[in-house]
Records
---
Amino acid sequence: MKHFLIALGFLTILPVNISKEIKEEDFAVSLLYFPLIGAIIGAVSASILVFYKFLSIQVIAVIILLISTVISGGLHLDGFADTCDGFYGIRSKEEILRIMHDPKVGAIGVVGVVLLLLLKFSLLISFSINILWRALIVSFCFARWLQTVCCLLPYASCEGKAKVFTKYANKRNIIIGGIFTLIVFSCFLNLKGIAIFFASFILNLIFIFYVKNRIGGITGDTIGATSEIAETTTLFLIYLLK
C-alpha cells in the first residue's frame, strides 16, 4: 500500500498520508503502480461522460483536458513545455539542460503546449462516447507506464524530482507494469489494442532514444514530455484504427 501511495502522491495532486518510513528504494518500487494510477486518472477524467446527453462533445473534451491537467498538477505539460524550449534548435547538452532548468517558459514551449492541447482536443471530439472512455483509460495507463520505461535510462541532470526513481529502477517491475498495460489495452480495445500498444511503444521509443542521444539520458522534464507524447500518440493510433 505504501508504494501505491507514493505513486499516487507523485502523479497526482491528491494528498497522501504515509505513516511508514520511506526509503529511496521505495520510490523505484512504486513505479510498478504507475500504470494503475494512469488508468485511474483516465477513468476519473472519463467520468464527465455521464453528462454527454446534456453537454456537447466539444465542452466534454475541454472538461476532460481540464480534469486531467488539474489532477496531475500540470506536471507533465510543464515538462513538455520545458523540453520544447530546450530541444528546439541545435544546442549542446549543457545548453539544453540549462534552458530546461530555467523556471521561465519560452515562446517555443508555449507554442508546443498550445499545439499539443489542440491536437488532443481534435482527437477527443472525433471519438464516439463508447470509444472515448476506453481511449482515455488506455492512453493514460500507457503514458504513465512509459514514464517507468524512461527511468531505466541514466539521469542526465545533477538533480531533479525524478532522479530518485531512476536510481533503483529495475526491469522486473517495469515489465510487470508493461504486462498490466497490455492487458488493459486488450480488455478495452480487443485485438486492435494489442497492435496499438506495440505501435505506440515503438514510436515513443524513437523519441526516448532521440532524447538520450541529445543529452545522454533523461530528466524529469523529458519524462513529462514523453508522457504527453505517449498519451497523444495512443489517442491518434486509436483514431486511425477505430
---
Amino acid sequence: MSRVQAKKNLGQHFLKDAGIAAKIAATLTGQGYTAVLEIGPGMGILTGYLLERGFEDFRVIEIDNESVHYLHEHFPQLEKIITGDFLSMDLDSYFPDNLAIIGNFPYNISTQIFFKVLKHREKVVEITGMLQKEVAERICAGPGSKTYGILSVLLQAYYTTEYLFTVPEHVFSPPPRVKSGVIRLIRNDVKDLDCDEVLFVRVVKACFNQRRKTLRNSVRAAFELSREDYHEFGLRPEQLSVAQFVQLTRWIDENRIKSG
C-alpha cells in the first residue's frame, strides 16, 4: 500500500511536511508520564518521530482501517495500534497511570477531544497537537479576547495553555481551507475548584451562550436568584478570569433558589 486515500467524512488532511511533523513531536515535554497516545496517525508522518523519542509506552489510535493497514505495513516496530474511535475509548482500561496525548487532530472532532480530556484531567497530564487555528486560539485566549470562551475557561481551570506556532494550508494533502495551530496544555496544580464544579460548568456555559449580554442578564436567564447585587454583574463574560468565574459560581450557589 503506497498511500491512504483521505476521507472527507473523517476530516482527514494528511500532513506532508516532515520538518513540521518533527517540530510537533518535539512539543511533548516528557515530564510526569511514561505513556503517550497519538490520536489519528493517518500515514504516520508524526508517528515516526514519536517512535524515535523512545517513550516507554507509546500507542496510537486510528479509526480508519485503511490507515491501520498502512501503519502495520510501514511501521512494523509500532506494536500498539488501537483500532477505534478516541471519543468512545475507555482510557482507564488502556492507561492505568498518567499519559500524554498528541496528534494532528481531525478538525471535525477536535473540540470533542478536548472535552474528553477534561473528563480525564487527573490522568491526561499533557496534551499537544495541531488543530484548526481558530479553535487553537480559542483554547489559549485570555480574558478580554474576542475568542475567549467556554473552552478557554474550562480548560484553563485545570491546564496551562500555550499557543506554539501556526501551520499553513499547503503542507497538507488535501489542503484544508483554513490555517492550523499547534498548542500545548500542561496540567496545573488545581485538584479541585473552590466551588461546585458541576455548577461551574453550567455557569460558564450560561454566560457565554449569551456573550453579548452582561452577566446580570445571562445569569438571570439561567438561574432563579434570591438577590441580584453581585458586584461584577455589569461585566460581560469575556472579561472574567477563571478565578472570577469560580467566585461567580460560589455566589450563585449561595443565592440561587433551589427547587424542591
---
Amino acid sequence: MEEQDFRHIDLHTHSICSDGSMTPRELVRHAKASGLSAVAVSDHDTADGVKDALDEGEKIGIEVIPAIELSAKSATETHILGYFIDPDSKILADAVDEIRQVRSERIGETCLMLREHGIDVKIEEVRAAAKGGILCRAHIARIMTDKGYSSSPKEAFAEWLNVGCPCYSESQALTDTEAIRLIRDAEGDAYLAHLHLTKKPSAELDAFVARLASEGLCGIEGFYTDYTPEMETEFRGLAAKYKLKLSGGTDFHGTFKPHIRIGAGTGNLKIPYSVLADMKKR
C-alpha cells in the first residue's frame, strides 16, 4: 500500500510588498512554523518579495514557489495567479512599473469617493501604510478601521470597497488575456484565482474558463478559503472539462485579514502537497 503524504501547502499568500502584514521572510517563517511544506508568496501586481522569500525558504528548509497575483479588467473581480515566474524577468518588471501607476490612480479614485461620502482617507495615508509597497484596498480598509469608520477591515470591504459597493473603482491596467500573456512571458504558469468572485453564472463562467484556456490558462484555483463544497465540485469539474490543473491557497494577509489563517483559511482547509506536485509537471 502506498504511504499517505501528510504534507500540506498554501499557494496564495500576501506580504507587505502588497497588502499583507508580514515581510516575505516573516511570512515564509510563519508558514514553516505552521507546519506547511511549501508556500507561494503571491503579492498583488508585484514580485518584489519573491527573492527574499526564496532565500528564506532555502535557509530554514521550506519550499517557496515564486508567484504573483495580477488584477485584470472586469465588471466584477478577475485575478490571475502566476506560478513559477522568473522574478528577474525584465518584461515582468517593466509591466509592473506601469501597473503600479494605474494602481495609484485607482486608489486615488477610491479615496476621493470615500471623502465624498464623509470618510476622510487621503492617498498620502495609504502610501504611508503601504511602506513603499503596492497600494491596495486593504491599506484603505485598515485606515478606515483605525479611524473608526468601520469596525473591521472586513466590514470596510463589505460596506464600501468591494465590487458593487459605493467606493469601488474598476480601474485596472491589464485585460485577462494580457495578464496570462505576461505571466507566460515571465516563464510562469497562469491560474484563475477565486472563481466565485467573478460572480458569473455557471454557463457564463464555463465560457469564460474555456476562452482563457484557449489563450494559455494553465489551471484554476480549486482549493480556496471561501469555497463551499458545491463550488469546489463545480470548479474542479471545469478544470477536468478543459484539461486544466488545480492550485490552492488561503489568501492569507496576516493582520489585514485576521480571520484567515495560513494553510487553514477560516477553518480546516488542507491542501495536499500532491496539488503542487501535479502543478510542477509542466
---
Amino acid sequence: MCRWAAYLGEPVFLEDIVTAPCHSLIAQSHHALEAKTATNGDGFGIAWYGDRPQPGLYRDVLPAWSDCNLKSLCRQIRSGLFLAHVRASTGGATSRDNCHPFVSGRWSFMHNGQIGGFERLRRGLEQGLPDALYAERRGATDSELFFLMMLAGGLEDDPHGAAERAAGQVIEASLRAGLDPALKLTAAFSDGERLHAVRFSTVGNAPTLYAGAFRGATGRCLVSEPFDRDGPNWHCVPSGSFVTMTRDGMATEAFQPARAAALAMAV
C-alpha cells in the first residue's frame, strides 16, 4: 500500500512535511509503520498549488529517498495546498504515468488502496467514460481510472457525490461480474481551494487516514500516518468517512456508495 500526505493552510515549505520531520513522507517511503509493506519505492509525486489555478506536478519512478531533485524542490517551494505521494504498486508498471498524484485541469488526486479484480472490471469501467476524459488517461492504474470516473460523475459540482457514485460503479461492476466487491479507498483530492479525502473499504480494514493541525492554527494535514508523533494531536478518521477541509475548518460526513450501487443495479 502507498503512503501520502496533504496540507492546506498558510504557505509552508514542502520540506516541512515531505522531507524534514522524523517520520516524514520520505522516511515512510522506506520504513512505513502502518502499511502492509514497509517499503514504498515504486515512484513518487507531488502536486502543489500556487498563483495559477492548475497545480504544478512533479513525478518520477525513482524511490523518493534517492531523488535529490525532490529534496531540492521541497526546500524551495512554498505552497498553501499540496498533495504528496509515495507509491507501492498493487498493479500497473512502475512508470511516470502510473505515479500519483494525477491531475486534470485544476483538480489533483492521489490514492492508497486498490480495486480488487481490476483486470476483469477495467474494460467495462473505462467504457463508461466520455471520450474527452478517456483521452486524458495516460497510465494503466485503477487509481487514475477512479479519478476520471469521479470527474465524469460530477466532481466539479459535487465532490462527495462524485466519489460515492464512482465507488458505487465499482461495486456494481464487481457484482455484475460475479465478484465480491473488494474496493479499498483512502484518497485525497483538491480543486485548489478545498481539500477532500475519503476512507472506505468493502472488505477488511480501510487503509489508514489521520487528520491533524499543523503549526498551531495555521494549517491542517491529512496523512496516511503521522509524520511527527510528538507534534500535532492526530486523530484517526473512521472508515466510511468523507472529509472536507477548508481554511476555516474541517467537516466529516458519512461515505455510503452502496446507495449509488443499488440505484445502478436497479436500472
